[in-house]
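Comment thread on ticket #2218

A.B. wrote:
> Attaching the input chain for the structure job we discussed in standup.
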Amino acid sequence: MADEAVKDKKKKGGKVILAICVVVIVALCILIYFLLHKDDGPKRDVVVNEDNVSDILTEIEDGPAAGTYQVVMNSTWHFKDGKASSDNAYVENSKANKNPVYFEVTRSDTDETIFESPIIPVGSHMEKITLDKKLSAGTYDCVVTYHLLDDDEETISTVRVALTIIVDK
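C.D. wrote:
> Ran it. Output below, let me know if you need it in another format.
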């Protein structure tokens, strides 16, 4: 009789432990689901008006938000010929920024990428840039696409800026 009582207690104890494990697993699944599907709402530009102007100014004074970028570059690059480095090209990752970046220069008419930069740390700059593709003499409308990087060097956002390239010979 005593053996059967011990067996019944073990069965009940096993069922209790199993029930607790199931509850813990379900709770963890629910927690993970809510963490992964957290909705911060859509990110939109804010309209500045008399009611919120002081709040917006305070945010600006606190510095740039993560994922924003202050562009420091000249908008026209001159090249003596299609192989030479530019005598005036300048791109800086301002000390005011929070992320390292790299950028690509793409021709607007053909979407051809004609230059890809290395990663530029915050506070660093590039100058005397030589294009990856040789261009004939002429004026080229281009787009510079900055890729803001996280700590793992993954793109978190991009910024696009117009650029004119002039090749003399």
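A.B. wrote:
> Thanks. Noting for the ticket: The first helix runs from residue 2 to 36.
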